[in-house]
Design brief:
Blueprint lengths: L2 H10 L11 H7 L6 E5 L5 H8 L3 E6 L2 H9 L7 E4 L11 E7 L6 H9 L2 E12 L3 H4 L13 H6 L5 E11 L14 E10 L2
Helix pairs in contact: 1-4
Amino acid sequence: MDAAQWDERYRASAGGVWATQPPAVVREITATLPPGTAIDVATGDGRTALWLAERGWDCTGVDFSSAGLALAAARPGGDAVRWTPGDVLEWQPEAQVDLVVSCYLHLPDSAAAVARVAEWVAPGGTLLVLGHDVDNIAAGGHGPSDPAILYTPDLLRGALDDRFRIERCERVVRASGDAELRDGQHAAAIDTLLHAVRVR
């Protein structure tokens, strides 16, 4: 989907597309980190950026959908985040940050996109990527059905060089209570998680 299609989807939604909380594994990992500067890549209607800001992070939410960013800014606490229009393949931050989070960003060359946003992580900082795994199709979980844009642990692991120490890179099962969508679709799903720390 391009920016215009996402704008249409966000404008048609009542209060936003995604669940109000970030995925459980994202909350679990980021809750252990000391707050600093953060970028939420493809923030959509802002759930992860808002959650981070509530916990003291100086957060920028980036997305190419102006309608998604408008929804995010209108949500409670929306004035605590810098909402920035930008395409992940073109936008560049002014400085590296302590945390880069990317949830469910699927592109024809996802490995290149992950490698690009990894450059935004400062030495000592954390990269956290979560998205639909290719095995999610057979499992019947919600999400894209094109295997060419879905993740595997090998794909995400291969996107990083030796400047990163990989803490976790694995398939994770999203439980039925950890909904991705706001409309209450609670089917379990298979995601791929990458949690890495930049060592230099």
